[in-house]
Amino acid sequence: MRKLGIERRWLLAAVPLLWLLWFSQAAAGAKNIPLHGMWREVTRGDTPATILAAFREGTLKTFNPALLQRFPRDALGSWVVLQPEAIGTGKERVVLSIYPAPLGTITLYGAHGPIPYAMDDAGDSLHGHGRLVFRLDADQALSAPILLKLEPSGTLAAPERFALQNMDDFLQQDSNWLTFATACIAIMVAMALMALCFAIMLRDMTFAWYTGYMLCYVVVQGVQTGFLFHPLGMSWLAGSEVLVGASATALSVSFASLFISRFCDVQHYAPALRVPVIALGFAMPLIVLLRCTGIDALVVMAQTLVNPVLILGALLLLITALAAGVRGSRQAWFFLAGWTPLLAITAMTSAQATGALPSLDWLNDASIGMGAFEAIVLSLGLADRALTMRHDRDHVRVLADHDPLTNILNRRAWTEAANRMLAETANTERSVTLLFLDLDHFKMLNDLHGHAAGDRALVAVAEVLSNELRPTDLLGRYGGEEFVAMLHDVHQEQALHVATRLCRRVHRMEIPVNLNDLRLSVSIGLAMRSMGDTLETMIERADQAMYYVKLHGRNQVHAYERRADMMGTPPRKQP
């Protein structure tokens, strides 16, 4: 059974990976028109004509447009020339796509002049979700070289690849990507909103930190892929996407730090790492504030600090979760299962920015898929945490409600349950009976045989009483050697029979008290509920009836009705 549960968890974990594999294969299988590429950095005095002339002379640097290539954009930018292999002669709609969507502007030099285009462009241009897309004339796409200028940008230049394909293939691939990205982002947002609801209902900040972390990651992916602009249409973010993306990245690490501190119970399982984790949670917002000041010195300082702090922070969280998991934190393994794949993808993407792994163009999409995967895994971890906390709370409640020696209800818990029973039956004709039981000669038993023997006797008597009463009857230890029981839906004669049976069973346990064959027994007083009764009045009457038994021979039952009857009705002796 346990093996089956493990297999199911592995199957659940494999679903996003299989989905991502399918998407990457579908994207790789798209039919693209072959391209040859050349490039060089922009120099002063360059014109489109001189670049095309240099292209024809073969003096530009060559590259493979189908692989990711990083082009410098920190000075004047870079020129890129793409030469398609002409296929066919008829008119067809052709598009040039640049993936992943760069944050800066790219200008296409066509027959009708330069056409600048950026990811945050809200115009009527053809939008390729997750990509920049230019619509080309068929004649130009199949014969003439395509000239692009990657305009200078203050951001880190990410590697890009180029694809030329007909409109139908592009629309199919674009539809696949949009479905994939929308589903992943919807999963992350849904998990975050669900956690927010639980944070409000349970007043547990762990769920709130998870919500902040997941929503920040959604913003990060939305900026990097352009999803916030197309299809969501948040054009009001145009021009500030770099700042928004950097801020969201920093805050996501901050929320993740605060989340792991509570989720993995770092204070208990890895106390030495708690202070660095909390410090990371507060350091990242400070860096964001420095970035937002607009003061050049502070902005430069923030830009210098952010990447080293992100790298060290990610490693710190990984080590903290691993340490907590090894020392017994169940939730830490959920965090590792969700965080580690995403961290690996992020590390590979960072390496790709330096020119490594040029053929792995699916890493950006993998970041979205792994975000959805992490959202699911951490949500399962939160659910497991909530169930564990509920189990622990119920266990503590059981311990608080039960007598530690006899394992039956203690006085407080029995009183609460008895009051509820009286309230539930207050406006009905259902009868309620209260039995007050006191063990006979118990002090002598303790004096002659010791308190350990007395404790064993109490445990044995409580077990016998529990077995004789119905599961719905309330049995509790009132104090010392006194027990109380509340019975419902029994008339007085039936209650007397039940109490007599209890007397008989306790006496037949044959627990010796002294050497003169005196055995432990029980005296029971009985009170039926009458008009205007409360629990206190019923206990008082049953207690008086029990003392009446004590005065008339013990090991008997007496029902209290009216004070005049206390002398007129003899106790019922057990056979």
UniProtKB/TrEMBL annotation:
Superkingdom to which the source organism belongs: Bacteria
All residue ranges annotated as the GGDEF domain in the record: 430-562
Gene3D superfamilies the UniProt entry points to: 3.30.70.270
Taxonomic lineage: Bacteria, Pseudomonadati, Pseudomonadota, Gammaproteobacteria, Lysobacterales
Protein name: diguanylate cyclase
Catalytic reaction(s) noted: 2 GTP = 3',3'-c-di-GMP + 2 diphosphate
Residues making up the signal peptide according to the UniProt record: none
UniProt xrefs under NCBIfam families: GGDEF
SMART domains xref list: GGDEF (SM00267)
Bilayer-crossing regions: 177-200, 207-230, 242-260, 272-290, 305-326, 333-354, 366-383
Keywords on record: Membrane, Transmembrane, Transmembrane helix
EC assignment: 2.7.7.65
Record's keyword annotation contains Transmembrane: yes
